[in-house]
Design a protein that fits this description.
2 domains, TIM Barrel, 8 strands, alpha/beta, eight-stranded parallel beta sheet, single chain, 14% strand
Length: 277
């Protein structure tokens, strides 16, 4: 549902793939989370007709039209939307430089949440980011931003912690739990939004690396499940046959099922966590 794919030119929309997903989910009594309405990275996800030469007025109109049309089309069919992704600087100090920030100013975040809420008042609206799972500068920056949004009455319902982590060096589960707790204390739901666990940098053979991966999945999810504000988990894929990590970084085995679609130790670690084991 990224802008460049579903809305590739100013006047053209392509709903074939999104309709297929939503219709499949409806038929099978599944819920759908839309992702993402706005991704705060200029080089990814935006169509060519949105440029820095676009006037502020035209840009704002395009943003409003895109959100209103997409959310409105699936009103009552998509129960939650990732309204905005990755808007906070990695050091937690202020907002990431982007076309949205340049054109609309710092208030663009509140603005896009209000537009999405107007299009479907019953949908849950989510902010999500990476590197803000535990305790640190980035998570402090995200916390400060969403706290202000809540104080200002912006219709934000949830924070998604992406949870792209490596088994060699990942946030301590107790720090993740503390972060979930403080976000929940603001009146927000908290979720794991894009979880996968890289293992290529671990020592040992594949069974040894997969056992470490099992423990990471288990311990992180178990810690989150103990927090009252924690609501759901999304894995960023389910089989190692298809992972964004392979093309962006290096071949890895970050998911719950192997390339033959067989459950890995990570699958059983997640299941144990869900069952309280």
């Amino acid at each position: 549902m990224m802008w460049e794919w579903v809305h590739p030119t100013k006047d053209d929309w392509d709903f074939d793939s999104t309709d297929a997903i939503v219709n499949f989910a409806s038929y099978n009594q599944m819920k759908v989370k839309g992702h993402p309405l706005i991704w705060s990275k200029d080089e990814f996800g935006l169509p060519g007709y949105l440029t820095r030469d676009t006037s502020t007025e035209d840009f704002r109109q395009a943003v409003h039209e895109h959100i209103s049309t997409l959310v409105g089309r699936y009103k009552g069919k998509i129960h939650a939307w990732d309204v905005l992704a990755e808007a906070v600087n990695d050091d937690g100090r202020g907002l990431r430089k982007s076309l949205f920030l340049d054109k609309l100013g710092e208030d663009y975040i509140a603005e896009v949440f209000h537009v999405a809420h107007e299009a479907d008042p019953d949908a849950l609206l989510i902010y999500e980011d990476y590197g803000a799972e535990g305790v640190g500068d980035k998570s402090d920056g995200v916390y400060s931003m969403v706290k202000k949004l809540k104080t200002d009455g912006v219709p934000i319902d949830e924070v998604g912690l992406q949870m792209h982590i490596g088994a060699l060096n990942y946030p301590k589960p107790e720090d993740i739990a503390a972060n979930v707790r403080r976000l929940a204390d603001l009146g927000l739901n908290v979720s794991i939004a894009e979880m996968d666990v890289e293992i290529r940098q671990l020592p040992g053979d594949l069974p040894q690396r997969e056992e470490v991966q099992r423990k990471v999945y288990h311990d992180v999810i178990a810690a989150c499940l103990k927090e009252k504000g924690f609501r759901n988990i999304t894995f960023w894929g389910f089989t190692d046959a298809y992972s964004w990590i392979d093309s962006w970084y290096a071949p890895d085995d970050p998911l719950l099922f192997d390339e033959n679609y067989e459950p890995k130790p990570a699958y059983w670690g997640v299941l144990d966590a869900l069952l309280g084991a």
